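Hi support team,

I submitted a single chain yesterday and got back a structure, but I'm not sure I'm reading the token output correctly. Could someone confirm the output below corresponds to the sequence I sent? I've pasted both exactly as they appear in my results page.

Thanks,
R.
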Amino acid sequence: MEKPIIGMTPLWDEEKNSYWMLPGYLEGLEETGAIPIILPLAAGGADIAQLVDLCDGFLFTGGQDVSPQMYGEAMKPTCGELCPARDTLERELLYRALERDKPILGICRGIQFLNVALGGTLYQDLPAEHPSEIVHSMKPPYDQAAHMARVLIGTPLAAPLQKT
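Hi R., thanks for writing in. Yes, this is the structure output for that exact sequence:
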């Protein structure tokens, strides 16, 4: 049986002008029996179509903030670093993957991007715009929970978690 190929959106280091990837993303996919591949940021059009045909699923990884322009806002001073090339790649990749009914998983920035690309909005800076005692940022090595979350009964997220 062939292993599934999972395309991963790359992390971008502006200072070093380079792509990079957290080993945990690669290792996690390999442990599940998949072959992870890091996608190029410069891909567009026909290249993305070919990548969607090649890959069995996609992981939208963490990284810079999603551009506020994608959800109809001007960038505020509290917004973090952006990566326009990544926003462009992920937008086209997502729409093509959805057209072909390919599995998609978003982690951190990835889930925020999926939310925005499918019509949602974001706080550009959660502590500034929605103050709370909860700390929403993590420090390396990113292997501990930052805080607990509660899933409300009757919501779409609760359905797959409920016992049958």
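A quick pointer for reading it: The two ends are 31 Å apart (CA to CA). Let us know if anything else looks off.

Best,
Support desk
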